[in-house]
Each structure stands twice: as structure tokens, then as C-alpha cells.
Design goal:
The structure is a homodimer. With about 140 residues, chain A is an alpha+beta fold. Chain A is built from 3 helices and 10 strands, in the order E-H-E-E-E-H-E-H-E-E-E-E-E.
Chain lengths: ~140, ~140
């Protein structure tokens, strides 16, 4: 198993509701979709996120997929204001705000957590100690 | 919420056991770690994966994190043989093989699914219809 992630697939209860959240609510642009079944979005350099029925995901994996919140995805942005703006955009789209934007003093990150209609968690963060070189190498101060 | 993923954090029951799986078992190189607390790995261009206690992740998010298998991460590789090799590397490391490598005839992908010690699912896939341009743009045929 290579030290590489190329796809992230979120299992959702209702693909239409999930698509409305990401596309209509947040304004994301689909990369490719099979209507009513799966929608893919490009979310990074060579990186794709898919939303797919929990049942379909379980069938594909060969073992039932179960709901839960054992992970978080993060979208890092460039400023405190960008974190605030992202949360204010997500709220009316139907996101549940789990943590309002605030400074995490111990690690000096300004962040918030929101959940999509299935509870999948997104951290929106401004981390002054994070940098990404042109070749994609990440540095965490 | 930008159409971008920069961090993926997996909530795990036992950070030491999870670290053994990824570092000792799979041979992954940590990017940065706080011993006993969190380990980060670079898993793509500007993309980081962290393994962190489920309790810590819940505290950070402002709402308890619960176990479940509502998602899958995928690592795309370049050939059928590379899929087989990745599964044979993961098995002795302690991965549970949920789906042995095989062709998914309908979508013409050769793939397997394995689960880490917490059940977090990884698809290892060879997709001849997938290409990534130099600038990171993904094409799905």
C-alpha cells in the first residue's frame, strides 16, 4: 500500500441530498458523475473526492459500510478571514457547525469544524506554520 | 468550504498500534510526529494524512468522534501487478483484506480493499482510464 492517497470516497445516506449540499450549497464543480449514483470532485493535485451511497461503497469494498465519524478532512486556507468566510458559506448550505471558528492557542491554528449532511467532518483551518513548496512538499512548523 | 482537501485525519483506538501498522508494517515515512499523540505522513502533493486518537479527534472537532466505516481512501497504482504486490505487503503488516484483488468488469478497474487495524478502508486500484496531467488535473475516462 503506497504512501499515497488519490481518491477519497464518502459513503452517504442520500446521494441527491449530498450532491445538493456540495454542488448547489457550496458551489463545487463536479469532475465526472453518474447521475443518481456517484459524483466526483477534484479536490487537489491528482486528488479526487467522491460521494457515493453507503450501500454501494459497502458492496464495492466487500463488507458493509457503517455510519460513524472516525475521521476528518481538512481544507487549509490562507487567513483567519478565509476561515470565517468558509464557515459562513457552509452554514446556509446545510452544514452543521461543530466548532465555531477560534484560535487553538496550544498549536496556534485558527480553525472551525463543520459536518456535511451525513456528519462527515471538515476542518477549515488557517495554520501559519504550514507551507507547501512548489513541488508539493509539505512543511509543518 | 473550498473544493480542496489538504489533510485527512484518521481517528484510531490505539495510536501506538496504528503507528506500528503504517510505519513498521507498511514502511511509511513520517513527516512530523508528536510521540504517543499524533503522526503525520505526506500522502500526495500538498496532502497530509494524520493518525490521531479518536478521543483527541472528537475533542478537537467539538463533538465526540465515533467508530464506523463510512468512507474509503484509495491509492491508485500503475498496474495489476502493483495492486497484487501492495496487498501482499499489507497482509503481513496486519491489514484485513476485505476484497481480494480482482477485475471489476463493469467499470474496468482492477482493485482490492484492505482495512487498517481500526477498520479504516483503503482501496488499492489500477484504473487504465485514470490519468493525471503534470499540473495535477485528473481525467476519468
Amino acid at each position: 500500500m503506497d504512501q499515497a492517497v488519490t481518491f477519497i470516497t464518502l459513503g452517504v445516506a442520500d446521494v441527491a441530498a449530498s450532491r445538493r449540499f456540495y454542488v448547489d450549497g457550496l458551489g463545487w464543480q463536479p469532475l465526472f458523475e453518474v447521475p443518481g449514483d456517484i459524483t466526483f470532485f477534484q479536490v487537489g493535485h491528482g486528488l479526487v473526492l467522491g460521494i457515493w451511497g453507503l450501500d454501494s461503497l459497502g458492496d464495492d469494498a466487500g463488507a458493509p459500510a457503517t455510519p460513524g465519524t472516525p475521521f476528518a478532512l481538512a481544507s487549509n486556507v490562507g487567513s483567519v478571514e478565509a476561515v470565517d468566510a468558509a464557515v459562513e458559506r457552509a452554514r446556509p448550505a446545510g452544514a452543521t457547525v461543530l466548532r465555531e471558528p477560534s484560535w487553538h492557542e496550544a498549536i496556534r491554528i485558527y480553525h472551525a469544524y463543520v459536518a456535511d449532511p451525513d456528519g462527515h467532518r471538515w476542518e477549515i483551518a488557517f495554520n501559519p506554520g504550514l507551507s507547501v513548496a512548489e513541488d508539493g512538499t509539505v512543511t509543518l512548523a
